[in-house]
Amino acid sequence: MTESLVVFLFIWESISSINACTLPVHYCDPSDHVPQILYPCNNTIEALVGSKLEITCRVLTELHPTVSMIVYWLANYSFIEDYSKSARVKEVHTERRDKKAAYVEVDLKFSEVKIKDFEVNFQCVVLSEEIEQERFVFIKPAVSNVASDFVVILVVLISITLVSICMYKFVKSKHLLSYVILK
Ligand SMILES: *[C@@H]1O[C@H](CO)[C@@H](O)[C@H](O)[C@H]1NC(C)=O
Ligand SMILES: *[C@@H]1O[C@H](CO)[C@@H](O)[C@H](O)[C@H]1NC(C)=O
Known about the structure:
Helix content is 33%, strand content 34%. With 183 residues, the chain is of the alpha+beta class. It folds into two domains: 21-141, Sandwich (Immunoglobulin-like), CATH 2.60.40.10; 144-178. The two termini are 29 Å apart.
């Protein structure tokens, strides 16, 4: 019983870790510092070569800003216009505000992800009079669905084998035990 529970948890963990990359983003270590980069979080995201991709740099700002601020992306420490002269990668700026807060968002839009993007440090930079902040994000090749399905099937098969072996050993040891007691 315990074994099947362990195996179930194991399978569940494998499946959820595979799906983790499709879950919505979470903000990293929030502080009360303003302006503050809410996303990206110095992390790695997955993308398929040839697919579209959008990475948003989300910055929390003051509701009534007193100092000017600029937000931009860098690719390997160069400006995006220099990294992608053909406008394959573009920056799109938007500002949002509600009653409590204001945000500046700069989307990094890829019309098509290329292999060379996988080795690049994409950095969102916030420059205001007092401070400079940056957060980076790396892109790594996504495991395609076929491959992840294969992994799930493999994990299930291995688990079933392990359970069978454990049960076999368990039953066998019980038999031995009763044999010893009878003797
Ligand atoms: C970015 O930098 C990394 C390491 O510094 C290097 O391997 C890679 O080739 C660079 N990529 C581009 C497109 O400049
Ligand atoms: C993210 O990386 C930058 C350097 O690129 C560093 O200055 C910053 O402290 C890091 N932030 C977090 C939350 O790890």
